[in-house]
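User: Predict the structure for this protein chain, please.
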Amino acid sequence: MALSDQVPTGSPYSAETDGAQVVADLDLHGKTAIVTGGYSGIGLETTRALAAKGVRVIVPVRSPEKAEKNLAGLEGSVTTAPLDLADLGSVAAFGAAMKGELDRLDFLIANAGVMACPEARVGPGWESQFGINHMGHFALTKHLMPLLRATEGTRVVALSSTGHKISGIRWDDVQFTEAPYEKWKAYGQAKTANALFANGLSRRLAPSGGLAFAVHPGGIFTPLQRHLPREEMVALGWIDENGEPSEMAKKGFKTPEQGCSTTLWAATSKALEGKPGVYCEDCDIAAPTDPESPTRRYRGVDAHAADDDAAERLWRLSEDLLTKA
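Assistant: Here is the predicted structure, written as C-alpha cells:
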C-alpha cells in the first residue's frame, strides 16, 4: 500500500471509458451496494450502472425530494434511506438500520462530499470538509464493519481526488482552529484523508478477504462545484466568460458517465486482487506523480497520500475524534 505499490496494471480501459462499459460483461446479480451521494453527479451514474447489472443499491439521502426526482425511472432495485454525513447521530441510525436489514454488503462506495465550501463546522466542531468527506465516511464504515467483514470479497471505494496534491494532513491544525481557513487547502487535506482511509481500511479488511481502494474520478462538471463562484471557475480555466466549458475543460474533463468508471473498475476488477489500498485513476492504478511531467498537477499520486505510516496515524486520530465526539 506504499508508493512503490502504485504500479499501473495495463488496464484495457481509459479516461474515455464510461461506467456501463466497465461492468458490461459482469454478472453482479445478488450483490448489494451502498453508494453515498448516489443520487447526484457521478454518484447517480454509479447507482445507475450497478442497478442495471442486478445489484441491489441502497442510496443514503439527505434530500429525499431531490433523490426521488433523480432516481426516478432507474432500472433495477434502488432504495433510499436517510443519512446526513455531517450528523453522527444520523450516521449511527443509518448504520443500525443497515445492520438490521442486510446480511451482506458487497460494495461500499464512499462517493458523497463537498468541495471548496465556505468555512463551516460540523459534528463536535470539525472543519466541514474534513468532517463530511472523511469523518462522516469513517464513522459510517465503522458502523458497517460487521457487514463488510461478513461478506467474502467485499470492496470499499473511497472517492479521493487529484486535489490531494494541494495538502497533506495538517497534523498540527487539522480543524483550522489555529491558522485562517483556506478552502482549497481544507479540500486537499480531506482528499488526502480519503486516500489514506482506504489504505488503512485495507489492512483491517484483510483478515476477511476484503479490499479497499481510493479513486480519483477525473475532472467533471457536477453539483460538487456549487460553492464556486463563476469568476473563480473562469480563473481556474474551467469555464469561459459566458459560463460555457473552456477549451481545456472540453478536452480534459469527463462526462459523469465517464467519471464513475474508475469507481466501478475499483469495485469489480480482478486486476486489483492482491493490491489492497492503492490509489486509482482512469480505470487503472495511478503511477506515482512525476515531478517533471507537465501533467503532474492532474495525474499520479503524491507520496503523502500513499503512505502507510500516515494512514495509520490518521486512523488513530480519527478513532480519537470519534471517541471524543
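Residues 228-253 form one domain.
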